[in-house]
Amino acid sequence: MKQIQAVHSEDFKSYDTEKIRERFLLDDLKATDKANFVYSHYDRMITGLITPVNSVVDLGNYDILRAEYFLERRELGIINVGGEGTIVADGTSYDLNKKDCLYLGKGVKDVKFSSKDGSNPAVFYALSAPAHTSYPTAFASHADVFSADLGALETANQRTISRYIHKDGIQSCQLVMGLTTLATGSIWNTIPPHTHDRRMEVYFYFDVEADQRVIHFMGQPQQTRHIVMANHEAVLSPSWSIHSGAGTKNYSFIWGMAGENLDYADMDTFAVGELR
Q1: Which of 14, 24, 190, 207 is 20 to 30 A off residue 218, Cα-Cα?
Q2: Has keyword Zinc (predicted)?
Q3: Distance between CA 27 and CA 48 in Å, rounded?
Q4: pLDDT digits (tens, 9 = 90+) for 177-218
Q5: Integer angstrom CA distances of residue 39 from 17, 133, 215
Q6: Distance between CA 58 and CA 176 in Å, rounded?
């Protein structure tokens, strides 16, 4: 499991393109018949993809966890961004269509991932945060979760935000998770931009066409930088950094947070005119 250490906001100001990508971009996550994870020192978040094509993939253990099994002291949120798949958690089976979510709490030992059809495999995006309390396994279909429409075509940011794991939805210890889908003709996400000192965030971009890209903006509001991102890539956002993006075409992304609270609205917003 790859590790990424934390970066100070003052140091970040001197980074060039390659160093920004090295310290914040999570690429090469998609690997056939494998769980591929990255361990971040930001709130000890683990981010990864599980892509079963020809065989069942087990949620393994890793030396860095110093645990008897992956979820001994952790919780896990999973959203499928591919074809239909199945997750078996301690003997109970859950079928996930695209954009469905499964939450696994602290103490779940045996987790297996598979696809219904290897020619259209499931792609399970997963976020895991440390947990001090156990919450029950919970499934949420995309059609049934709370969703809100924001923005407008006039400002190229018409989008639907779907919340899965949050204080009024699936209960967790500290994980918050959902996804945003941009309407045709819209390219901007998370406008106006914001930070939140009490938790980090990860963005995972999907449904980005092969010849298209998302320009993800980060950094302090008066010291912004960018990363050019492709499909099925994720980016880490420290608590001091904004996190917004503009695509060359509409796309979707999963947002996930861990930190001090589960309040979706816990953020400090900045007017577009304040950005530099």
Answers
A1: 207
A2: yes
A3: 10
A4: 999 999 999 999 998 888 888 889 999 999 999 999 999 999
A5: 22, 21, 24
A6: 24
267 touches 201 (CB < 8 A): no
Q: Which two tokens stand for residue 27?
A: 């690429």
Helix (H, G, I), strand (E, B) or coil at 155: helix
CA angle 202, 207, 209 (to 5 degrees): 120
Q: How would you class 272 by CB atoms within 10 Å of its CB: exposed for 0-12, middle for 13-18, buried for 19 or more? A: exposed
Whether a cis peptide bond, with omega within 30° of 0, leads into 192 is yes
Annotated binding-site positions for Zn(2+): 194, 196, 201, 243
Structure tokens at 271: 């007017």
Token pair, residue 144, equals 């049934």
Would you give per-residue pLDDT tens digits along the chain (276 residues)? 999 999 999 999 999 999 999 999 999 999 999 999 999 999 999 999 999 999 999 999 999 999 999 999 999 999 999 999 999 999 999 999 999 999 999 999 999 999 999 999 999 999 999 999 999 999 999 999 999 999 999 999 999 999 999 999 999 999 999 999 999 999 999 988 888 888 899 999 999 999 999 999 999 999 999 999 999 999 999 999 999 999 999 999 999 999 887 777 788 888 988 889
Which residues are annotated as part of the binding site? 194, 196, 201, 243
Q: What is the rounded CA–CA span in Å between residue 92 and residue 269?
A: 42
Amino acid at residue number 29: L
Type of residue at 169: G
* Structural element, H or E, at residue 10: helix 9-12
3-state helix, strand, coil in the chain (%, to 5): 10, 45, 45
Helix boundaries (H) for 29-186? none
